[in-house]
């Protein structure tokens, strides 16, 4: 059931990110620059991932942080493939290829994975040898 928990929390983090992009579409100075939107989300993804990791590890789960981060990121990517691309990107003239080949998408996925990993690492620092 730990995998289901990681998937659920990954979906929650994806919703936060999706809503952040939706709100940024209405911010005058940012709405016309995808790079500025990604920068803002890149900053906000850290507290989102920390929040998600804190929920995951709340009840004493000890799953490796890299594994949990990857599950959360894969969940977000699957939701992007099922929701974001067909309902947001394609109506705007984008495609699956343009969405998934955008390098900053993968930077955001890496930030999410790294944040969960480092949260786990700091939470369990006493169990690592010095």
TrEMBL record:
Chain segments annotated as coiled-coil in the UniProt record: none
Membrane-traversing stretches: 7-24, 36-57, 69-88, 100-120
Keyword flag Kinase: no
Presence of the UniProt keyword Membrane in the record: yes
Alphabetical keyword list: Membrane, Transmembrane, Transmembrane helix
InterPro entries named in the record: Uncharacterised_YnzE
Pfam families: DUF5367 (PF17329)
Name assigned to this protein: DUF5367 domain-containing protein
Species of provenance: Sphingobacterium gobiense
């Amino acid at each position: 059931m730990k995998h289901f928990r990681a998937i659920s929390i990954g979906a929650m983090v994806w919703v936060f990110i999706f809503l952040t992009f939706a709100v940024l579409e209405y911010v005058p100075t940012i709405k016309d620059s995808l790079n500025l939107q990604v920068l803002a989300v890149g900053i906000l993804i850290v507290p989102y991932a920390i929040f998600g990791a804190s929920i995951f590890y709340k009840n004493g789960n000890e799953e490796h942080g890299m594994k949990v981060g990857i599950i959360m990121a894969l969940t977000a990517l699957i939701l992007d493939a099922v929701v974001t691309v067909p309902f947001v990107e394609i109506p705007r003239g984008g495609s699956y290829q343009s969405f998934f080949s955008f390098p900053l998408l993968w930077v955001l996925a890496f930030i999410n994975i790294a944040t969960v990993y480092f949260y786990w690492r700091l939470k369990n620092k006493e169990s690592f040898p010095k």
